[in-house]
């Protein structure tokens, strides 16, 4: 039984989309928007440019989670695609914090100062996770104009890294 986090590679495409469908569609009953599907089928172009990156969490070679940062300039990243299969959540595995720490370490290594994120109102457990880990809720108007949250995002956060 092995857990690891790796940068996205095309070989993970099908498993990634399947995992997001299990969580977003089956668990939360939120359809995958066309813009989201387009991003998921062009991860190297959408996320892995500039200092941005996209990671997948693997357990026994199965994609069970993801996390990404988009380089939005201004020494800031936008946190995106934070997903973790239900059975791997919680303090027993600490997989969620391992994913978040991957992003925070990457951000600091690349001398980025701030993480922004937008999320749907439905992800209450995620809201508590972000707040517990230092993210501060901000209004939509406080999001910089260079952030590009998804249409379904109605709750916004900021994490200062310095």
Count of DSSP H/I helices: 5
Main sheet attributes: strand count, strand direction, barrel closure: 7 strands, mixed
Which second-level CATH architecture applies?
A: 3-Layer(aba) Sandwich
The CATH topology annotation reads as Aminopeptidase
Determine the N-to-C terminus distance.
36 Å
Q: Give the SSE string.
A: EHHHEEEHEHEE
Question: How many structural units, i.e. domains?
Answer: 1
Q: What general form does the structure show?
A: globular
Number of strand elements: 7
Low-confidence stretches: none
Report the top-level CATH class.
Alpha Beta
- The class by helix and strand makeup works out as alpha+beta
* Oligomer kind: single chain
Walk me through the structure.
There is one protein chain. With 162 residues, the protein is an alpha+beta fold. It has helices at 13-27, 34-40, 43-46, 95-109, 124-132, and strands at 3-7, 53-59, 62-71, 76-84, 114-119, 136-138, 155-160. It has a single domain, classed as Gcn5-related N-acetyltransferase (GNAT) (Aminopeptidase, 3-Layer(aba) Sandwich), CATH 3.40.630.30. A seven-stranded mixed sheet has the order 1-2-3-4-5-7-6, sandwiched between helices. The N and C termini lie far apart (36 Å). The mean pLDDT is 93.
